[in-house]
Amino acid sequence: MENNNKHNHLKLKIGVCGAAETKICGVHAFDQAKEIGREIIRQGGVLVTGATTGFPLWSAMGAKEEKGVSLGFSPASNEKEHVETYRLPLDYMDLIVYTGFGFAGRDLLFTRSCDAIIIGCGRIGTVHEFTIAFEDGKPVGVVEGDWLMDETIKTIIERANRPHDHIVFGKDIKTLVQKVIKMAKVNKKKD
């Protein structure tokens, strides 16, 4: 999508889902997260996250390296609660929406505000974000990496007993982001 500041609202909002606590993610998770953020911006999108630590934070770092826009949805009611109660960062976010709905409510608002999502290394919160996107028929890209989340998502899809034609898997970040953006553009035209 072309970079026209007059029409920034037309840019695709691509969410990145992943673990805030990343001990399970493997050695290359942060590099992959940063590359996802970079690619979303390079390909004309806006990065959206749950305004948290770990994988999403590193994707925001990558987005800012490319001078892109980064939007976060916080579980907290305000900045003080975001920092002091939830112990979440303010760094690398251009805007933070303080939902006041805790993690579960935040996930719903975050996911529904995106045109598509990309999933990296994750835990139960990532599964929650995926199932919301799945139910909503959103385009989803799943990064295959040194973690189990990609296999977990495949099992959920297999056992869901219904099709979802807008999910792609891949190891190459640039190609995966391209596919997700292409699906999001098609999906957006249907709205």
Please give a structural write-up.
The protein is α/β, with parallel strands linked by helices and 191 residues long. The protein has a single domain, classed as Rossmann fold, CATH 3.40.50.450. The chain has 7 helices and 7 strands, in the order E-H-E-H-E-H-E-H-E-H-E-H-E-H. The protein has helices spanning 29-42, 54-65, 79-85, 102-112, 124-136, 149-159, 173-190, and strands spanning 13-17, 46-49, 70-74, 95-98, 116-119, 140-143, 167-170. It has a 7-stranded parallel β-sheet, with helices on both faces. Helix 5 (124-136) links the parallel strand 5 and strand 6 (140-143). The longest helix has 18 residues, at 173-190. The model has no long low-confidence stretch (mean pLDDT 93).
Per-chain topology:
Elements: E1 13-17, H1 29-42, E2 46-49, H2 54-65, E3 70-74, H3 79-85, E4 95-98, H4 102-112, E5 116-119, H5 124-136, E6 140-143, H6 149-159, E7 167-170, H7 173-190
Parallel strand pairs: 1-2, 1-5, 2-3, 3-4, 5-6, 6-7
Task: Name a few traits of the molecule.
seven-stranded parallel sheet, 191 residues, single chain, globular, Rossmann fold, 7 helices, 45% helix, 16% strand, alpha/beta
Along the chain, the helix and strand elements come as EHEHEHEHEHEHEH
What count of helical segments does DSSP give?
Answer: 7
* C-alpha Rg (nearest Å): 15 Å
CATH hierarchy class name:
Alpha Beta
CATH fold category name = Rossmann fold
Backbone shape: globular
In percent, how helical is the residue content?
Answer: 40-55%
* Beta strand %: 15-25%
Strand order of the largest sheet: 4-3-2-1-5-6-7
Quaternary form: single chain
Which sheet architecture does the biggest sheet show? 7 strands, parallel
Low-confidence stretches: none
- Number of separate strands: 7
Class from helix and strand fractions: alpha/beta
- What is the rounded distance between the termini? 18 Å
Mean pLDDT: 93
CATH architecture: 3-Layer(aba) Sandwich
Question: How many domains in all?
Answer: 1
